[in-house]
Amino acid sequence: MKLRVLVLSLFVAAVGLTIAPIAAPLTKATTSTTVTVTIGKPTEFHFLLSKTTVPHGTVVFKLVNKGKIAHDFSISGKTSKKIGPGKSGSLTVALTKGKKPYKCTVDAHAAAGMKGVLKVT
Length: 121
Description:
This protein has 121 residues and is of the alpha+beta class. The chain is built from one helix and nine strands; from the N terminus they run αβββββββββ. The longest helix has 22 residues, at 2-23.
């Protein structure tokens, strides 16, 4: 009797190990999109984004200031810290579908050209 229980237990364990890897792919991994934002190039009051269209979800903006003065990056109600000349930083934002305006909120930088629109699909 003990032998039957032992064999049955081993069988159930072996089947469980065989089935477990099949069930694992059913969960969807969360991913994020990375956009590099070059600040202060081609001119001081401009942004250059590595992507102008991104899928909806989490977007990580990697900010690199190539200009000569401090700037920030603001999109969808979130704003980065000021990024000094030669410095870098990041801003992570969850974006829904649509057109998302972005800008620099420092002084009159947006009025000088530091603004644009990111398309989120």
